[in-house]
Amino acid sequence: MKQLLFYFLFVTISSFAQINSTNDSTSYYMDLANFNLKNNNYSLTLENLQNAIEKADKSSNIQAKAAAYSLLGNVYLELKRYSDAIETFNKSISLYQTLEPSAEMAYSFYNLGVCYIEKKEFSKAENYFKDAEQIYNELKIEGARDLINLQKGKVYKAKNEFQLATKILNSIVAKNDIDDTFNTKGEAFYLLGIMELENSRYNLAINYLNRAIELAKKNNNLEVQSNTYKALSQSYEKVLDISKSYTFLKNHVLIKDSILGINQKKIGAEGFMSFKETERLKTIEQLDKENKAQAKATKFSKLISLLSIALISILSLLSLSLYKNNIIRSQTNKLLQDKNTELQLAKDKAEKASKARAEFLSTVSHELRTPLNAINGITHLLLEEKPKKSQLQYLTSLKFSGDYLLNFINDILEINRVESENIEIERINVNIKQLLEDLQNSFKDLASKNNNDFVLDIDENIPENLIGDPTKLSQIFINLINNALKFTKNGTVSVSAKIILSETKEEDLTRIYFDINDNGIGIPPENQETIFESFSQGSVEINRKYGGTGLGLAIVKRLVNLLGGEIKLKSDVNVGSSFSFALDFKIGHQTFVEVVKQYDNSVFNTKKVLVVEDNKINQMITKKMIENKDMICEIVDNGEEAITLVENNTFDLVLMDVHLPGINGTTATEKIRTFNKTIPIIALTAISLNENREMLLSFGMNDVITKPFNPDNFYKVIAQQLS
Questions:
Q1: Which of 85, 96, 80 is CA-nearest to residue 12?
Q2: Structure confidence by residue, pLDDT tens digits, 346-371
Q3: Whole-angstrom Cα distance, residue 69 to residue 105?
Q4: What is the CA radius of gyration of the chain?
Q5: Considering Cα of 61, then 64, then 70, then 76, what sign does the dihedral take?
Q6: 159 and 125 in contact (C-beta within 8 Å)?
Q7: pTM for the complete prediction?
Q8: Taking a C-beta distance cutoff of 8 angstroms, is the pair 206, 168 a contact?
Q9: What letters, b where the CB count within 10 A reaches 16 and e where it falls short, cover 239-269?
Q10: What whole-number distance in Å separates Cα of residue 79 and Cα of residue 42?
Q11: What is the per-residue pLDDT across 389-421, written as a single tens digit (0 to 9) for each?
Q12: Other beta carbons within 10 Å of 426
């Protein structure tokens, strides 16, 4: 136990070196207490510590008061009055916890652990040692590690955790005697010897215990000597060396009697009881002072209480009202939260279903393009080879079916693209009058087939050069005009475009009202709400009679919305239908001139074309279409070989399939562009939802031809690049 006192004296002196000069009286009594403690005069030590606590309390010096309580607890520990020691150390710790973590606080935690070991409450002891160790680690103080490890070893041994105890005690005995600052090795050897004795390894126990006696004598540690002699007596008795067993037992008794004599001199029962009585009286005096102060405060509190009761009564009524309101609000909020949760789940479910549907339809439409390219391509080639009259009817029907299926697939892809918001609006020059006149020319055959008049009514004040998206405008008009001509026979279809007053009143902005009117079969009122939904055509009978995908009006509605307008419908059965919408256009500052690119077949003569395509049927069709225009065709089925051929040969043009085995067409194009910037490369693709023309051109391609090939467009794009 002496090594604990030496360590405490070092900590206390360090602490008091920091107490300022205003607390000299506290410091004086602490110095006296330390002096009397060194001389085993415990009565005076206790008296000095009581005075130090009083002085520290009067000067409100928390650190000095905590240090005094810590030293007092250490005295109780030395006197083996563990309950008093625990109470005092807890007072010390409660004061230290109001200050920054310190070695003094850690030492109080350590001593609490020692007290609980003596009371055999090992779990509590272990917790307090952990608290002490944590503070030492935070402060980076290494000197106390062996003291804590020694106590942990005792705890592990008491809990029969011999493996942990042996490991931690061996770390102590492995140190040099010079590094054994707090004389812990002797007691560690003793504990190791006891564990070997309990495990019936008597010779090993005797070795450890002899080493413990040697160090205990060197450090004058009587307690360890007494305990070790007793353990040696038991060990020699086990190995049947009765003579040595008796000798060590005699030594144990002598030292134990000596320790009892020393303890009796430390403080008498009368002296300790006197000190405890003084402590009790001072506690009563302190409580009396506090009670008088409390009584004085109580008089004032009564007045405050009366006022408070009145105020509380008013507040209680308000609180009751608020409480009821809160209950109602909480119930309402809970209902709203539940509804919101249900709506969010339904929204998430709908979004997932929509996404899955779009991805499925996109995949199906994309995959259908490859075989459809073979059907349409072979049909075109057979029609060009002057078939027999009997065969011509079948080939024409096959071409019609292929074109119909292609339009259907294109509609599916377009509706998916619009719904997925994977679409951008162009802002380029557009001539509304020219666009509508071109459409009028393209629909002449359909109009004459149903004996319809197709007329345009275009406001002369519409500027020639507007800024808009001609592609999406064309899609809107094509769908609406096609429907009007298809569902009208022996009638009139008119398209009008007129300037109306714009709400924005901006000078460079014009608003145009479009109306597509027919006197066809009309749409029943019950179907007008759903006519703009996907795959809706009014009725099964109409679908069977007139055909179509039921996607045209869904595409129209979404495109009009994208361009900032709203499509409106007026229709009566057997009277006709009118689809109208208004769009805003910025007025361009340059004259719009449409350049129609024409080509001559001579541009194809002897041109050398490399086709990069992995599908055998597509290879055959593409090669035949190229050779029909007197071009030379070479075919490869992968991107790697295409790169090598372009690098080592001369070609006038490359037709590059986008989806290839190995590296795809876009990657192959990028690599070709590293050594050849000029050769025209045209992308061949069954374009999918996630692909677009701009994306493909960004890889270095010059143009795009979609599968299935439209022969006229196929030759037109090639001619443009060759010329």
A1: 96
A2: 888 877 766 666 566 656 665 666 67
A3: 11
A4: 51
A5: negative
A6: no
A7: 0.41
A8: no
A9: eeeeeebeebbebbeebbeeeeeeeeebbee
A10: 9
A11: 667 666 766 765 666 566 566 666 666 666 655
A12: 13
